[in-house]
Amino acid sequence: MTTPLFFIRCVQLGLSIGELGLLTIGLVNDMYVESHNDEHKYVVVATQEDFDKF
């Protein structure tokens, strides 16, 4: 990952320069991936009953 790409991802997540001092590169990457997972439409979504069986 390049520095410009990292900063673009930070902007997409709405992070400020001040917040970057508290976060690692890995954490920013994880936040970016999770933000896209939230938008994905899953075919099957687990219910509480599924978790109880697990």
Description:
This protein has 54 residues and is mainly alpha-helical. The chain has one domain (3-53). 67% of the residues lie in helices and 0% in strands. The protein has four helices and no strands. Helix 1 (3-13) crosses helix 3 (25-39). The longest helix has 15 residues, at 25-39. The chain is elongated, with a radius of gyration of 16 Å.
**Low-confidence parts, pLDDT < 50 over ≥5 residues?**
none
Biggest sheet descriptor: none
Mean pLDDT: 90
Q: How many domains make up the coordinates?
A: 1
Rg over CA atoms: 16 Å
List the helices and strands and how they pair.
Blueprint: H1 3-13, H2 17-20, H3 25-39, H4 48-53
Helix pairs in contact: 1-3
What's the short story on this structure?
This protein has 54 residues and is an all-alpha fold. It is 67% helix and 0% strand.
